[in-house]
Amino acid sequence: MTNALPLDNLRDLFGDRLQENVVMANYTTAHVGGSAGGLIPINSLKELEQAARSLWKLNVPFKIIGSGANVLFSDRGYPGVVLVNHAHTIKINTHSAAPGVWAESGANLGAIARQSALRGLSGLEWAATIPGTLGGAVYGNAGAQGLDIAGTLDSVEILVRSGEKQSWKAERLAFQYRSSLLKHERSEAVILSGHFNLTPGDPKTIQDRMEEFSRKRRASQPPGASMGSTFKNPPDDFAGRLIEAAGLKGKRMGDVEVSPQHANFFVNTGHATAQDYYKLIKLVQQKVAQTSGIQLELEIELVGEFGE
């Protein structure tokens, strides 16, 4: 990967926080991916705002990640800067007429759900075992068990490229299945925080419901290194069922395997590459189209250059 970043400017701005030529396999849940030109850990909203504004001013491309799920970085690398968002403050309000929870975009969605449940607030039980962060969950309208972010999100605070901070109501995000306006339009905007409207309830009942959702998720989803669900479910069907019907459970490409437990999960069984993932994705799309006539759409996001 050719590094054309203005490294002198970046070093002046970020000092020792800037890490150069960082292998993204160490920062993603599938443990694959080449080197990013730069990486900056983010520990507060102030740092996130400052980094985004500075990189926009320098016209440096950047990608924000949290846990590193739902994203596939190319083996060829990413010629920009990756911001690893650890801004994770959570504030729970149980004392007003409209109880809810506010959290920074780097907060783990499962932690938000579990802390809310402990305080007797219902609405996020489905999210208890989701590994991603609030920012990524809002960006992709994350969901499980037939529920999703759109069902409880009240508003988000957004930083746009002009440097202005804006408060958006959930409706403005135009949520669709596993997508939002920000994802669909590849908007140059940064999610800073989000607020959810939740419902008071009996803590034990909420905890029991959350544990049932968690039990179902653990029973259906395979362990090991993966990106999460690879494809979106098509209308009135399931990607995993279509892949299994195409005879692809257990199919391998290099060290990537279509999980024998859940066919919509592609597991790194050893020393897989991003290209292994990409080739398996293309093969599965081709075979499912041949057997069912359905073109599977990616739920994960590809970052960098991929090719046959």
Description of the structure:
- It is a single chain.
- With 308 residues, the chain is of the alpha+beta class.
- The chain has three domains: 7-85, Uridine Diphospho-n-acetylenolpyruvylglucosamine Reductase, domain 2 (2-Layer Sandwich); 90-220, Uridine Diphospho-n-acetylenolpyruvylglucosamine Reductase, domain 3 (2-Layer Sandwich), CATH 3.30.465; 239-303, UDP-N-acetylenolpyruvoylglucosamine reductase, C-terminal domain (Uridine Diphospho-n-acetylenolpyruvylglucosamine Reductase, domain 1, Alpha-Beta Complex).
- It is built from eight helices and 18 strands.
- The mean pLDDT is 95.
How would you summarize what this structure contains?
With 308 residues, the protein is an alpha+beta fold.
